[in-house]
Structures are given as C-alpha cells and as structure tokens.
Design goal:
Helices cover 55% and strands 7% of the residues. The protein has a two-stranded antiparallel sheet with strand order 1-2. The protein starts with 5 loop residues before the first helix and ends in a 5-residue tail after the last strand. It is mostly helical and 138 residues long.
C-alpha cells in the first residue's frame, strides 16, 4: 500500500474538522439543558473534557471500525497498523492524544512526514499506525 501525500492528508483533516465541528455543536446542544440553558464558563472544567471525549470517540470509532473517517474515505485513505490491519482502541487513543500534541506545537508532528523516510507523523510513529491509500477494488 502506498502512502498519501501531505496535502491529501491535510484535505482529509479539514473535511473531518468540519464534520467534528458540527458534532461538537450537537453535543453542546444536548448538554445545554443541564447547564440551565446558559453558556459554559471558563470555570467549568467538565465541558472541555466532555468535548475532548466526544472528539476522541468520533475518531476512535471510525478508525477502529473500517479505518476511515468520512474525510479519509473521501480521499481513499485508511488508518491501519504497520501490518495493514485495523487499529485497536488503545492505538486509537495514543494516536488521538499524540495528534493533539502534534497540532499543539504548530503542526510540527504532522509536518514530520516531510522529514521521515517512511512518511510518518509523530502520532503514526508512537501509535504504530499509519495512513495508507486504498488499493483499487478494496
């Protein structure tokens, strides 16, 4: 299996971000009645943790059930183990947490694919997973 290029990967990330934003709006709407219909304040630690958990389950579910989010599917990319198998929840968790760190330092973890001889990002390396282009007919 071949690896997708950085631009293809970033396009899938943007697509998934739009879907995730819609999901987070919905997740917030579900939670608002429990906060008296009021906006959440910076003092409420539960809310950002809740959104982080929703985000993880969004990515984790797709990665562990078919290896593709909708954005990845649009670009015919799969998240798989280094042995080209579906990832498990532990790998999904590690990948998710390290990808937050990768973004948090100006995207350097993502840009690492330009330096790594195997075109792996930091979250690929740590979680022992990778992005692979789907082969025709699969």
């Amino acid at each position: 299996m071949t690896k997708p290029g950085l631009l293809c990967h970033l396009a899938a990330v943007i697509y998934d971000f739009l879907l995730l934003a819609a999901l987070l709006f919905f997740a917030t709407a579900i939670l608002l009645p429990f906060n008296g219909g009021e906006a959440f304040s910076h003092q409420q630690v539960f809310y950002p943790l809740y959104l982080l958990a929703v985000s993880f389950f969004f990515y984790g579910w797709f990665w562990t059930h078919g290896g593709q989010t909708l954005g990845l599917r649009a670009w015919k990319i799969k998240v798989l183990t280094n042995n080209h198998e579906l990832i498990n929840w532990r790998q999904a968790f590690i990948r998710f947490i390290v990808s937050l760190f990768s973004w948090g330092i100006l995207g350097l973890g993502f840009l690492w694919v330009l330096v790594d001889k195997n075109q792996r990002s930091w979250h690929d390396i740590v979680s022992k997973t990778g992005l692979f282009l789907e082969q025709a007919g699969k």
